[in-house]
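Here's a chain:
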Amino acid sequence: MRTQIQKLGKTLMGPLSIIVASGLLLGIVSILQNPAIVGEGLANAYAIQTFIGGAQAIVSTMFGLLPILFAISVATGMAKEDKEIAGFSVVIGFILFHVVINYLLQLNNITAENTSIEYLTSQGLSDIRAVEFGSVYETMLGVFTYRMGVFGGIVVGLWTAFIHNRYHTKQLPIAFSFFSGNRFVPIVIILTIPFLSIISYFVWPFFNIAINGLGSLIGQSGAFGSFIYGFSERLLIPTGLHHVLNQLIRFTPLGGTAMVDGETISGALSIFNAEMASPNMNLVVLRQSTRFLTQGYHPFMLFGLPGACYAMYKTAYLEQRPKIKGMLFAAALTSFVTGITEPIEFAFIFISPILWVFHAFMSGLSFLLMTLMNVAVGNAGGGMIDLTIFGILQGTYTRWYLCVAVGLVYAVVYYFVFKYVIERFDVKTPGRTNVADETEEDAVVVSNDNLGASILSALGGKENVVEIDNCISRLRLVLKDTSIVNERLLASTGSMGLVKINQNNIQVVYGGKVEKAAQSLKQEIKAQK
């Protein structure tokens, strides 16, 4: 089960890349709309307004497609083979899923017309009660249905992956052989999705109440809720399950629910993007959404972890400093610019529980401080790019300078805490290994020309590799036997750390180099067939 949850967490990252890119476009648009930055003439220029209108149309469409994007990402990510068939089938399944729910709602005389706020208020309901009742429903791809958000997409995606993995090789009797194999998958989806819809129709209202209740509890906990989120998210880093927590906070009621331009929006990142696109931005709502977003990351991603890298360099043995200098600098720069932190974190998390818990605590404290200081810097990256577009260039209302002020303190604290703990407990961070323990193999740095061959050799050969995948910073592998993996050889390929989930699942941390590593490994396996 843990393996499947790990895999699910990775699949949830698919739509995030699209939403982050859309968010960056939205951030640029908001800058061009700000006369204080670009001037009245440029802000009101016809060409600029045309660009803004087009960008907002694209972005609003992408946000509306989130549920089906999650469905496709989950189905293709969880499918073991023939992923394109799973992607084809899940689109059919997603639409039919909501069509059946729509039919059941109609049977109970629940329609878009009699659940609108205008109709409900005309029937004597208060504005608040009308909004509460009407927000239970929405129109998805032209179909009136329950407002299930990304949960609906995840449910359909998981069901499609289950059906696909079970039946994509199914062979039917000769008379029906045309429908065998991959062609059988969408047929089974069509036959089974109505049952999933019926179950969801009766179960979802109770689940919705529970999720909204938990979201309200988190919302009412205020700054303390921000601390719990930041602390938990960093503690989950080694397991990879932080992706699951992040997406739940960003795209479901667990991250809050708000009314933006008359529409109910759920999820911290969804609310933030909706407010950024709104002509009537509500700063109170915006600040409430950003308390779970990048403003909590900036102090330790831009300043704290680079300070930790400097501490690891200063505590390294003199003769080993030249060897690890480039690696630590690259890891610090990656964290500073992009917010990818795992190359640094994996240098100390597994060898020092003290530093791991300290880092998680400082993460929670960062989210807490940003909330208390009413900072309003959003998006989902955490690096300098996000701070620039969604903080500095947006103006002083974001209070971005507080991220920098707290970050400078974090740099000092991280440096001295890491330096003290490493020296006090002789933590074997990079550059503190005994020369006698090193082999000739450790001194060799694998070039890009033979990267795939070296990784494959370290994994025990192509016969040991069952499945290859990757997320933003990790190579996620299913092997026949993880015990034969050569960790020293993997380190020579640029690996920053290793996570053995069980005897068959392993994750290799490469940071920004992960796409190159995955591509090289796949090409090497193809070349050896």
Residues 436-444 have pLDDT under 50 and may be disordered.
